[in-house]
Amino acid sequence: MSSLTDLSMLELAAKLASREVSSVEATQASLQRIAQVDPKVRAFLRVDEPGALKSAEASDARRKAGSPLSALDGVPVGLKDIFLTEGVETTCASRVLEGFVPPYDATVVRLLKEAGLPLVGKLNMDEFAMGSSNESSAYFPTHNPWDLTRTPGGSSGGSAAAVAAREVFGALGTDTGGSIRQPAALTNTVGLKPTYGRVSRYGVIAFASSLDQPGPMARTVGDTAALFQLIARHDPLDSTSADVETPDCLTGLEDGVRGLKLGVPREYFAEGMDPEVAGTLRASLEELEKLGATLVDVSLPHTKYALATYYLLASSEASSNLARYDGIRYGQRAKDARGLKELYTQTRGQGFGAEVKRRIMLGTYALSAGYYDAYYLRAQKVRTLIREDFTKVFQQVDAIVSPTSPVPAFKLGAKVDDPLSMYLMDVYTLPCNLAGLPGLSVPCGFTQAGLPIGMQLLGRPFDEARLLRIARAFEREHDFFRRAAPV
Amino acid sequence: MALTLEQVRHVATLSRLSLTPQEEERYATQLSAVLDAVAELEALDISQVEPTSHATLASSLLREDVLRPSLPPEAGLANAPAKVGTAFAVPKILE
Question: Among the four A146, A392, A434, A469, which has the fewest Cβ within 10 Å?
Answer without folding.
Answer: A392
